[in-house]
Structure formats: structure tokens, C-alpha cells
Amino acid sequence: MRLLQTEADITRYWRAVRETLEVPSAQLSFLAIDERGVAQPQLTTIDGLPTTPQQHVVDDIVDVLAAVNHQLVPRGSVAVLWTRPGRGPMRPEESTWLRLLDDELRRRGVTAWPPHYANEAYLRVVLADDLAA
Asked: What digits encode the pLDDT tens for the residues 48-67?
């Protein structure tokens, strides 16, 4: 049983997961965590996301995240990781993706950890300043 009760726990989890992921294109991975901090066994990854965020795609992704949260871990939370191939800092369109996802999750009442961002060079927590429009 893997406990994810702090931001540092989630960062360590994503670091371990990232080593096993093949990243041919931009992708979003997510995980449900119950109210005790127990990570659910199912990790879901959505590949082939468009470079520029599209609201209908964001809405579809959040539909899935909201259903998972409300049905599987109703008093729990979700954690998300945006990953892309290559190196370099987070790109403006990636920040926009994460901001739109974060805003929509909040609007729908889904408890979510701060998102994480990774590429071939590093993995990090995405701060509120990174999500500012």
C-alpha cells in the first residue's frame, strides 16, 4: 500500500512513474488517492494531446477526473502529471493546459493536488505563479 499524504510523497511517486513511461508526445497521467492517502492501483495516461489546449478536450479530461474522484474516491483527491518529450522549461502552452485543467477541476469541486510537470530533463511541482494567466 503506497501512501501519498504530502506534496513530497506525490513528487516521489511521479519520479518513479516517469522512469517507466514512454513519452512519444505530450501526455497527461492521473491517479486517484483516497481520503487516507492510499494511491489507487490504476494509473491512467492520455497520450497524443494537442500542443495548444482546446477547451472541449480539457472538459472531456475533467469529466473523467471528476467521475473518478466522485465515484472511486469521493472524499479523496486526484494527482496529475503533464509530461512531454524533450528538454527545456515549461512552455507557455503547457502552462495554459495545466491552468485550464486546474481551473476546471476547482470549478467542478474536484480536490486535486498541485499538478506536476516533467520532461526528459526534470520533474517539478507546478506553482500557482506558473499557472497565472
From this structure: 898 889 999 999 999 999 99
For residues 56 and 94, what is the distance between their CA atoms, to the nearest angstrom?
A: 16
> What gap in Å lies between CA 103 and CA 25, rounded to an integer?
24
Give the C-alpha separation, 28 to 21, whole Å. Answer: 11
DSSP state of 110: -
| Residue 58 per-residue DSSP state | H
Residues with Cβ within 8 Å of 61's Cβ and at least 6 positions away in sequence, in order, are: 28, 46, 101
- Dihedral angle computed from the Cα positions of residues 20, 64, 55 and 101, in that order, rounded to the nearest 10 degrees: -60
In the structure grid, which three cell numbers stand for residue 45, read together? 495516461
Q: So what's the pLDDT on residue 133?
A: 55
